[in-house]
Amino acid sequence: MPSSRDTPSAASEAVEQPLSVVILAAGQGKRMRSDLPKVLQPLAGRPLLQHVIDTARQLSPAAIHVVYGHGGEQVQAAMRHEALGWALQAEQKGTGHALAQAMPAIPDGHLVLVLYGDVPLVRAETLAELVRLAGRAPLALLTVVLEDPTGYGRILRDAAGSVRAIVEQKDASPEQRAVREGNTGVMAMSAGLLRGYLAGLRSDNAQGEYYLTDVVGMAVESGLAVAPLVAATESEVLGVNDKLQLAQLEGVHRRHCAEAAMRAGATLVDPARFDQRGELILGRDVFIDVNVVFEGRVTLGDRVRVGPHCVLRNASVGADTQIHSHCVLDSAEVGRDCQLGPFARLRPGALLGTEVHIGNFVEIKNSELGEGSKANHLTYLGDATVGAGVNVGAGSITCNYDGANKHRTVIEDGAFIGSGSMLVAPVTIGAGATTGAGSTLTKDAPAGKLTLSRAKQLTIDGWQRPAKSPSRKPG
Ligand code: UD1
Ligand code: MG
Fold first, then answer.
1. Which site among 47, 99, 303, 320 is 20 to 30 Å from 112 CA-CA?
2. Are residues 264 and 193 in the same domain?
3. Contact in structure between 354 and 370 (CB atoms under 8 Å)
4. If you take atom 35 of ligand 1, which residue's CA is the nearest one?
5. Which of 216, 45, 38, 32 is nearest to 114 (CA)?
6. Are residues 310 and 439 in the same domain?
């Protein structure tokens, strides 16, 4: 198997060059059949292009340039949080022509690493290895041995195993098509050399395009060595052209994440029903049931258990907490030894202390709950500061919004909120206070006392239940 070892190894001669990454992303992606440009299609919750940029950033490049064309404004708008160089390729005349559009912004002394915007799972380690190779040979090329190489450019090697050229599928002879080593499209070469070869590209081929791949043959002809690196796995260099391939890569990504979680010690009831769309930080002996979706940055402490069908987004959960089925946590912090759900919803700014219990159909937003407090059934706590040891009875609501502004509710330690209490904010329930079930409180409830606002109970003697009128048709 050809590998990085068949390059002249002279690590000592390696010169550190500043790195410029160029991501080719001007292709239309017709086969997506979508109004969203191909490189903005989401994989694991992030645009394909974002994956490539995030991976490239791990190499600490001097600059990242994106060659854009189709849907350019949309792509630029989606990436406005990134510091990028943008090069317009108004007409898609091939990969060589695309790269040429970015070259004016890259100084001769830089090493150019070419990536594709639609190859999202390439690993930073692989790219770092390629960059290392490019420090020792004029051109480093990432190849892959494929089960079915249809559609790929084929790597042509001589009897000694040295790379001689790349031939595109459409230009290849039957013998060349039988070659299973394909071009991934990822390559690295110094900007000065590359500029010269790109200027010499011609489009007299089957597709009438300026092929970047022709640079390889040109370099070899002028006596330069090509250092190939064979990718360890096919999946990391797979491109996305349609929704089927997008789902395939989502599956690959899912599997990688599940494997990493299990290697970190988590028990996954079914790795195929585990979705991680961001960063997951795991304590020891975490247990994750089926169909749990993790988004953004999620931290789970030791022995946390997550029940089936939960969504956790940008959340941290303390040790020994149990999240029962069907809970949604979004930008929330949960302490240790808590019980959540089933069917609990923590919205942004929910901060739960130790041993807090949040039960079914309870929604918490922008509220703190102190140690040992409980809201077990059908409750809304919004913009509230709840102390320790508070019990919020079923069906209680902080009426935090007056139609124009939001107001705070304060419930001090040890208060007992009777079922069905409406706490009209701004309002404070004092420490150890009790509110009577069904009360609507518009004024503060003093500490240690029972406060209620309830119409007196009446019984009407002699009242008759209305009888059905005989003329009415049965409904
Ligand atoms: C290319 C390679 C082929 C390789 C394959 C791997 C060439 C000539 N061929 O073929 O050897 O095996 O990728 O997937 O390089 N792009 C532009 N502007 C253009 C054309 C393409 O920006 O004018 C971008 C596309 O958006 C895409 C990338 O370049 O990100 C590859 O283009 P694509 O048309 O998919 O090339 P392939 O024919 O697949
Ligand atoms: Mg392609």
1. 47
2. no
3. no
4. 27
5. 216
6. yes
Give the ranges where 391-430 is alpha helix by DSSP (H). none
Contacts of 431 (CB under 8 A, 6+ apart): 387, 412, 413, 414, 415, 447, 448
Determine contact, residues 117/195, Cβ cutoff 8 Å.
Answer: no
Q: How far, in Å, is the centroid of ligand 1 from the Cα of 77? A: 23
* Among 48, 92, 95, residue to substitute to test ligand 1 (most atoms within 8 Å of Cβ): 95
Question: Is pTM, for the whole model, over 0.85?
Answer: yes
One domain, residues 200 and 268: no
Q: Which two tokens stand for residue 131?
A: 């960059």
**458 inside domain:** no
Same domain, 222 and 332: no
- Which one of 70, 256, 377, 407 is the catalytic residue? 377
Nearest alpha carbon, ligand 1 atom 13: 185
Q: Are residues 269 and 325 in the same domain?
A: yes
Pair (296, 345) in one structural domain? yes
For each of the chain's 475 residues, which pLDDT tens digit applies? 344 333 344 444 445 799 999 999 998 788 999 999 999 999 999 999 999 999 999 999 999 999 999 778 999 999 999 999 999 999 999 999 999 999 999 999 999 999 999 999 999 999 999 999 999 999 999 999 999 999 999 999 999 999 999 999 999 999 999 999 999 999 999 999 999 999 999 999 999 999 999 999 999 999 999 999 999 999 999 999 999 999 999 999 999 999 999 999 999 999 999 999 999 999 999 999 999 999 999 999 999 999 999 999 999 999 999 999 999 999 999 999 999 999 999 999 999 999 999 999 999 999 999 999 999 999 999 999 999 999 999 999 999 999 999 999 999 999 999 999 999 999 999 999 999 999 999 999 999 999 999 999 999 999 999 999 987 666 5
CA-25 nearest atom, ligand 1: 26
Q: Is residue 456 included in any domain, yes or no?
A: no
Question: What total number of domains does the chain contain?
Answer: 2
Is residue 293, in this structure, part of any structural domain at all? yes
Ligand 1 atom having least distance to the Cα of 182: 12
Cβ 115 under 6 angstroms from ligand 1: no
357 assigned to active site: no
| Distance (Å, whole) CA 95 – CA 114 | 10
Separation in Å, CA 268 to CA 82, 147, 262, 263, 305: 35, 31, 7, 11, 10
Asked if residue 444 and residue 350 are part of one domain, the reply reads yes
For residue 26 and ligand 1, the question of a CB distance below 6 A is answered with yes
Distance CA 63, CA 18 (A): 9
Which atom of ligand 1 approaches the CA of 94 most closely?
Answer: 23
Asked, for residue 294, whether it belongs to a domain, the answer is yes
Mark whether 185 and 69 lie in a shared domain.
yes
Residue nearest to atom 12 of ligand 1 (CA): 152
| Structural domain that includes position 311 | 258-451
* CATH value at residue 175: 3.90.550.10
